Amino acid sequence: xxxxxxxFRDTEKQNIRGLLVSLxxxxxxxxxxxxxxxxxLYSKNNAGSQQPNNRSLTxxxxxILQLPLQPMIFIIVDAVDECPNSSRFPNVAREEVLDLLDExxxxxxxxxxxxxxxRPEADILGVLESLASHHMSLHDENGxxxxxxxxxxxxVRSDRVMQKWKPEDQQLVIDILSAxxxxx
Length: 184
Hints:
Layout: E1 2-5, H1 16-28, H2 32-44, H3 54-65, E2 73-78, H4 93-105, E3 112-116, H5 122-131, H6 142-158, H7 167-180
Parallel strand pairs: 1-2, 2-3
Helix pairs in contact: 1-3, 2-3, 4-5, 6-7
């Protein structure tokens, strides 16, 4: 299993390179045959004195995923929406990540499962909906909305300053924040 979180607080963890390096390290820590593939990449890059480019890292990951007799492999990619997105050239971080996910899924490996989480942003939905075998949006789920409402109510009613407000003002804050939460 490999897990990666695109951390909104760390710009180094908001791009394809962070994802690739992390997945390679996690997968190679569990398997000698995976480690051998990564070791060859290390050797090709002058024993680590040069950094491999993203394409080399991608090809290394694909080779690892395509090893024969693989057990079930789960890759969880969390918070893709935290990758920067703009119309600049060359590809922006988010587009590169979405292209990688597309590439991995097109390998059609029966033992590979990829779970991607994100806010429902148009560019992400546009790519992932066509690739996904299963799709679920928590933003529209009643349980999610109730959880958000409960959390906001709890904060408003327990805050020392807000406790002094009129009940109708407290309720107004709860109603507005709950309506604007958008499932988050």
